[in-house]
Amino acid sequence: MAAATGSFAQSTVTLYGVADLGYNTIKLTDGTDTVKQSGLNSIASGSRIGFKGTEDLGGGLKANFLMEYSIQPDEATTSMANRQSYVGLEGAFGSVNLGRQYTLHHGVQGGADLIGNVTAAGWIGGMDSRVRQSNAITYKSPVFNGFSASAQVGFGETAQLNGSAKENEQTSFGLNYANGPLALAYAFEKVKNTSVLARDLAGTAFDLAAVAGADSWKANALSVSYDFGVAKVAYLNNSTKADDTTFNAKFAANNFAVSVPVGAFTAMATIGNGKIKVDGVDDTKLSAYQFGLTYALSKRTTAYSYIGQTKFKDVTVTPNDTIKYSTTAVGVRHTF
């Protein structure tokens, strides 16, 4: 994706980015009220600009850095929000990076999302994802016969008063195996005093009796994928438990994905189902689907179209209340 690369002594710095805009329609309904919205947005992936580089330190040791910021190309003004920013070392021991980085849990989920984490309804495999961790140290081991391991520690960012708990203090580890067309991945994540919502996992305009936070957040993700050449298939199981002094909530989901390339076209689909329990009692059932079609206009430019829907059925009342979250999108994505 590099457009400009410069060499200084034994250093290499690369400018890269993504410009993505599509026309997107959103419809939310709970059987009583309906909300509709449409407009331009980054759909296939977040628009961004970044710089990354390496320096050869000799003896097989390298220094690396990355600074990446999100942009909104459809607006008059833009906020350069920090997506990732880290600096680190890599060598025969593996790599160690320090800064704001993707969580290991999100990495496992993204590997099974063959549509590609689009901004559209229908993928519940990432609903419990924290995506990025600030103040993080991440270690990734070398690959041994297809196996590798990783670990991440995220330090809380708030000051402690009289021994109070830090917010979003995280520890996690991951295991990976990749051999030819087969890939397996697992990650576990534990977060203390997190502000992640425990029940409003939909991220929609309709509130699902959200809880403001949790003293303890534990998440697991397990994925497997296989590339047959004519098609690639993937499976993801994700589960999360959130606890505080007054409640405990559990979320679990199974997700299936397929991607089929045909010349310059790629057709993709995902389906998923899940359940939310509160204090051991069934609270909400979820079902979802996504369909996508992309066309490679060049190596860097892709036209796309997506449609998806997620249903949330509140099983605590009779008859069950159902929220439907539907989106459609068409657009263009360019990388540089």
Describe the structure in brief.
The chain has one helix at 104-112, and strands spanning 4-8, 11-29, 34-41, 48-58, 61-70, 81-91, 94-102, 132-140, 147-154, 169-179, 182-194, 214-227, 232-243, 248-262, 265-278, 281-296, 301-314, 321-335.
Task: Describe it.
There is one protein chain. The protein is mostly beta strands. The chain contains one helix and 18 strands. The chain has one helix at residues 104-112, and strands at 4-8, 11-29, 34-41, 48-58, 61-70, 81-91, 94-102, 132-140, 147-154, 169-179, 182-194, 214-227, 232-243, 248-262, 265-278, 281-296, 301-314, 321-335. The chain has a 16-stranded antiparallel beta barrel with strand order 2-4-5-6-7-8-9-10-11-12-13-14-15-16-17-18. A hairpin with a 4-residue loop joins strand 12 (214-227) and strand 13. The longest helix is centred in the first third of the chain and has 9 residues, at 104-112. It is globular. The protein starts with a strand and ends with a strand. The model is unreliable at 198-211 (pLDDT under 50).
Please give a handful of descriptors for the protein shown:
single chain, 336 residues, mainly beta, 64% strand
